[in-house]
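Board work, copied verbatim: Argininosuccinate lyase
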Amino acid sequence: MASEQDFTKRKLWGGRFTGSTDPLMHEFNQSLKYDKRMYAADIKGSIAFSKALLKAGILNEQEQKEITRGLKLVEQEWANGTFKIAADDEDIHTANERRLSEIIGKDIGGKLHTGRSRNDQVATDMRIWLMDETKTVEKYLTDLLSVMATRAETEVDAVMPGYTHLQRAQPVRWSHVLLSHAQSFANDLERLREQYKRISVLPLGSAALAGNPYGLDRELLRQELNFESIGENSMHAVADRDFITEWLFWASLMMNHMSRLAEDLIIYSTAEFGFITCSDAYSTGSSIMPQKKNPDSLELLRGKSGRVFGQLAGFMMTVKGIPSTYNKDLQEDKEPLFDCVDTVGAALRIAEGVIATLTINPENMAKALTMDMLATDIADYLVRKGVPFRETHHISGRSVALAEQKGCQISDLSMDEWRELSDKFTDDVMDVFNFENSVEKRNAIGGPARVMIQRQVDVLRKRINQQ
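↓ predict structure ↓
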């Protein structure tokens, strides 16, 4: 049975140490339980690194082929669930290297780490992993946007109140409301794509902090691993986690937008509004109230935004005081990143399902429209008659006050009452009181008129398809 001292010596750093490792310290230090999800990225990076060692003359062709063969067998073990974790496997990097040496022997397997440190290895693995995950999340986001664009295009007839301060303001189209949220997500899509180039910066070849002395071809590594650029400073390359902080910030902002969408839909789904109905697939019931249909999917989307932001805030506090190059604090980068990627991926797919399956209730939307929401249209009417807007605003406000005093809609005021308010009013003032016409008059770019809804949809689809 191996002693605790032997256990320490088996670690990659064990040669310097003669004392044994406190078992609690080993557990506190190891990260394999969560970083094993990067097994494929680690193996991909190691195979590429073996090719650089071959070119540098550290490995011969047979050794490089044997390392590649062994690493692919290790990858298969992870993929099919047969990989057996050893007690002294600290992380995915040591686990893979240990298993590789068991398969092909230490004489060859031990050469793989030549000129490489776990510092540049882990930074490379995380970037490879995040590059792949970013493309997946991008797909989920474009799927959501496509569903939103399709609904907006096909449900353009529905007119509903637009709100400010959660008070009825002016009539708009349901499509306009939906596309207002789509605009935020389209900006998120642009930001996600734009940060990819900062994720795709190769650290491998930087070693611990001072580069490697073997003349390893980092351009070859870049090409093998499909990175867009190479880290220019080895000290920065091993310690840079800005790409993680930026991704966490991106996730926090995107989930902020998700939360606001969820809040609108939660409100619209209440009996008091009744504008939409969530499908049963994304709703739950009450344990004691059979009549309840709760929008739990939307509430979870709203709630998850706090979780994601918490991961960002925690990680920023972790890195804010770290001195130059690699420090063990940086091991705290993985769990918040993994959690946020998982949360965001699930949230986008749930949101897509909610939007794709909800039912709108145009009749309830129309019932919520009231004539006082056309008060601005009264002001616009007078502007077209040559009255300064500040004066028209005052006159329109007086018409609303008069209707409230009489207990009627402003459209019920008589022509005599309109003329008392301003001699500019003529019989055609009654044409103002049409919600569809009100919306259609707002046909400048960005407005809710039909032609502008179609323009928004077309522009949105172009943004989705941009690469």
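Residues 1-9 have pLDDT under 50 and may be disordered.
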